[in-house]
């Protein structure tokens, strides 16, 4: 039997996404949730997630999704001084990270602030730390995360590796192991295009996860009250994923393929 962690990393970003996450946890269809503490709804919605996780029969992992890209505001004076009102664009990281030209002290301060905000609001340590946008594929970013997490009190969270690339003996695994930290393999993401047939095929033929307890990512969501909040194509894809994951077929499909969610 293959064990996977079906995961969403977007709690706190919109009402439709937050509602979908809570409903899937209640239904026993979601293994892990990453919280965006810099998102617009985190401090308004966290209590719903905490209550739902407490009520659910399974042990749903709740962690932090670190956001360090444009569209999210820095939390520290040091970050605001370096970046202004918003973190840099993804291209800014792509140009600088390979050459170790990132402001290490600033990034560590922002990472620590986001983790601390999660703990202050959620009143417990995160089960894992992931980096939105897959920036952790850059060794310079990964080392900043390792440095911050290694200074936390036990129990310290696991670190989620880069999507589809993390392997035994990687630089992240070595750095984390040296600091006494666990790592989690980041597997594939449910297809956003197509229809329910494509989602069915993903679990039946396309899910190849070489590591036990790998994270498989999904982006389900209900329609938003404000249609302009997300593009229509993205909303439709989220609704399809939600219908499929909530369907009676989904658990039978997992059983047929010997896949266990928790």
Question: Which keywords apply here?
Answer:
43% helix, seven-stranded parallel barrel, globular, 262 residues
Describe this structure in words.
- This protein has 262 residues and is α/β, with parallel strands linked by helices.
- Helix content is 43%, strand content 16%.
- It has a seven-stranded parallel β-barrel with strand order 1-2-3-4-5-6-7, surrounded by four helices.
- Helix 2 links the parallel strand 2 (32-35) and strand 3.
- Helix 1 packs parallel to helix 2 (42-55) and helix 5 crosses helix 6 (139-150).
- The N and C termini lie close together (12 Å).
- The model has no long low-confidence stretch (mean pLDDT 92).
Kindly summarize this structure in a few lines.
This protein is α/β, with parallel strands linked by helices. The chain contains 10 helices and 8 strands.
Order of helices and strands: EHEHEHHHEHEHEHEHHE
Number of helices: 10
Cα-atom radius of gyration: 18 Å
Determine the fraction of residues in helical runs and give it as a percent range. Answer: 40-55%
Low-confidence stretches: none
Enumerate the strands of the largest sheet in spatial order, edge to edge or round the barrel: 1-2-3-4-5-6-7
Shape, principal axes of CA atoms: globular
Q: What is the CA–CA distance across the termini?
A: 12 Å
Q: Kindly name the structural category.
A: alpha/beta
Q: Quote the average pLDDT.
A: 92
The portion of residues forming beta strands comes to: 15-25%
Number of strands: 8
Most strands sheet: 7 strands, parallel, barrel
């Amino acid at each position: 039997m293959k064990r996977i962690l079906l995961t969403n990393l977007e709690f706190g970003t919109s009402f439709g996404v937050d509602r979908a996450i809570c409903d899937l946890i209640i239904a026993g269809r979601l293994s892990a949730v990453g919280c965006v503490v810099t998102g617009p709804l985190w401090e308004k919605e966290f209590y719903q997630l905490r209550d739902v996780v407490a009520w659910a029969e399974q042990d749903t992992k709740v962690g932090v999704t670190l956001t360090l890209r444009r569209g999210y505001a820095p939390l520290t004076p040091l970050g605001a001084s370096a970046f202004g009102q918003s973190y840099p664009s993804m291209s800014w990281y792509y140009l600088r990270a390979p050459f170790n030209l990132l402001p290490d002290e600033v990034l560590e301060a922002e990472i620590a602030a986001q983790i601390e905000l999660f703990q202050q609001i959620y009143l417990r340590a995160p089960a894992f730390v992931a980096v939105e946008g897959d920036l952790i594929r850059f060794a310079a970013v990964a080392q900043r995360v390792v440095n911050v997490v290694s200074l936390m009190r036990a129990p310290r969270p696991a670190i989620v590796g880069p999507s589809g690339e993390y392997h035994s003996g990687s630089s992240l695994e070595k750095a984390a192991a040296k600091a006494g930290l666990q790592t989690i393999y980041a597997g594939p993401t449910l297809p956003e295009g197509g229809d329910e047939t494509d989602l069915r095929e993903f679990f039946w033929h396309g899910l190849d996860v070489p590591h036990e307890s790998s994270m498989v990512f999904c982006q389900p969501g209900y329609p938003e009250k404000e249609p302009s909040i997300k593009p229509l194509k993205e909303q439709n894809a989220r609704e399809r994923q939600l219908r499929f994951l909530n369907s009676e077929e989904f658990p039978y499909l997992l059983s047929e393929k010997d896949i266990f969610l928790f």
